[in-house]
Amino acid sequence: MHRVIVIVLFAFLGVSTIRAAERLEDPYHILTRHIEAIGGLEKVKAEKSSHLEGTLVIEGTGIQGTVKHWRKYPGRSRVEIDLTVFQQTQGDDGLRSWLVDTNGKVQYQTSEAVQLRRQVALHDEDYEYLDRASQIFTLQHEGLAEVEGQTCYVLKKSNSLNQDFSRLYISTDTFYLLKVEEYQPDQESHTYFSDYRPVNGVQHAFLQRVVVPAVNQKQTISVTGFEVNPDLDDSLFSAPVTDTRDFIMPAEGRSENVPFQFIENHIFIKVLINCRESLWVLDSGAGQSVIDRGYARELGLETSGSLQGQGAGNTVDFAFVTLPEFECGGIRFRSQRIVSIELRSMMKNAFGFEFDGILGFDFLSRFVTRIDFARELISFYEPENFHYTGNGSVLEFELRSNLPIVTAQVDKQYSGRWVLDLGAGDISFHYPFAQAQAFHERPGREYVGLGAGGHFHLNICRFDTIEFGGFIIEKPIISFPKTEIAGAFSSEELIGNLGNSLFKNFVLYLDYAHQHIILEKGENFGKPMEMDRSGMQINLTESGQIEIFFVSPGSSADKAGFLKGDLITALNQIDIRFLDGIMALRALFRETGATCYQVTVKRGDEYITLPLQLEMVL
Helix, strand, or coil here: 383? Predict the structure, then answer.
């Protein structure tokens, strides 16, 4: 899960009942008339602080609760959301933004994108967009549009600091602000305003409806109380001094050399819940930990709500669940609030075995985590007691929506910010960046990817180099979505995800407290990246048979005549049941050299044996 989307907007602009006798064309004139309508610029600017309370309902989910919002100019804010199943507090102390998640973890919003938005907001608070000579804001009149049966002027407000922009829909009849559309590279929201009431001579909307198109989420905010210019102490806007401590480490403050299983470039670690042990994936690309919905039912855990979030390749339905105390690597965790999704059945088909959850930000952010990929050993350290004495490469990362963001460069020219994603098997460009760079024109091979959001088609290409943390890896294999998709790989602010096909070259330290990464050369540094040489992708059916679910066009499998839906029954006349499962078969399909197999498949009621010549495809 890349993010739980709960968006609360407090534009809180209003109108009077001024009539427009004529249609206006000048966007600055239109917006000036709007400011006059809500009470005039002098009264609007006189609002130096405010306190709002209201109810928040996420439609169609059964989730509702309260929201409180404080503002103090310049640049300070605090929002508290309590939806019972989900609590979140976030704010800005005038110097930096911060957030406390539903499990009490404090994080500071230090990314460049957040800092630029803070700068834009400061200029916005000063109503600089009304100035035709502004070096920051630009207004455009885009014509007329209907909003809930009323004709509106449509004004586009953009800025010179980032790519964000908004569209304001102002009634041609009353100059009410009826709608605002907010666009960011990774997010879009539409807010509708109604129920205007005067407060200290300025009209404010007491009812707001927020629509998030990407996940089809609708929120209704009903204001129950609004106070202008209350006396607010600056300490209200500061992040909590103490951070959460929801785990108990061994007495020495560390848990070292815990074995993990590295399967298909994924890290599987054992988790003990209610005396039941199961495998979970370690995933820094998960903004919140996840439990399989069926496993949650087996443990007797109740789920609450029904929402959508962003997964790999698409959106994903999820609900909230309270995870009881659990143990991992000798560390005991207290109860945590995480999310549940349909995970186990889909992943079992791909991996050939069941795993029951994903350990994401709620787990990894508590420690300094050391991962030795070659030796398949992981260690956890208390951040306050960890002191690094090696000679590895140290680099900083940003923390954005609970995800570590790093920089890397491909082929000495494609530079940008990437998600450091321990839950990704491979390196992937996001679709917008791949499209902008015309990567689809490069020679490559088509495959199908699998994530929490389901299946999606990828192109896979070999590049010359990737440079990360001062290290250069030769001939990396990098994928990108074949077509535009929803979910995590649709981001425009980030250019891609770095996965374990890169990280397995290293011993990697991940330190959330100090937002540092440390890289040391691992025993497998520089080994060629492995990939399938057959051109076919295989899955387990519900009955445990090995099925071909995709044949890459132009590949060896395609040329040999294999088809989607074929069931593999034998390899070189050896029954597939004696080949140690689907993972072993995939390993055979990655063999080097001019390996040739005789593969027997069942197609309908017929058994067919076809020759399969492995080949270097990239």
Answer: helix
pLDDT tens track for 409-464: 999 999 999 999 999 999 999 999 999 999 999 999 999 887 655 678 899 999 99
Domains of the chain listed by start with CATH number: 27-237 (2.50.20.10), 250-372 (2.40.70.10), 382-521 (2.40.70.10), 536-613 (2.30.42.10)
Provide the β-strand partners of residue 159: 137
- Over 60: is that where the pLDDT of 21 sits? no
101 neighbors 88 (Cβ within 8 angstroms): yes
CA–CA gap between residue 335 and residue 324 (Å, rounded): 5
Helices (H) and strands (E) in the chain, counts: 10, 46
Measuring CA to CA, how many Å separate 173 from each of 149, 257, 488, 511? 12, 70, 41, 56
What Cα–Cα distance (Å) separates residue 443 from each residue in 129, 155, 278, 438, 462?
A: 47, 44, 41, 11, 8
- What is the enclosing helix (H) or strand (E) of 591? none
State how far the alpha carbon of 197 is from the alpha carbons of 99, 202, 206, in Å. Answer: 31, 8, 7
Phi, psi of 258 (to 5 degrees): -80, 125
Query: Kind and range of the H or E element at 574?
Result: strand 574-575
Residues 422-434 have pLDDT tens digits of 999 999 999 999 9
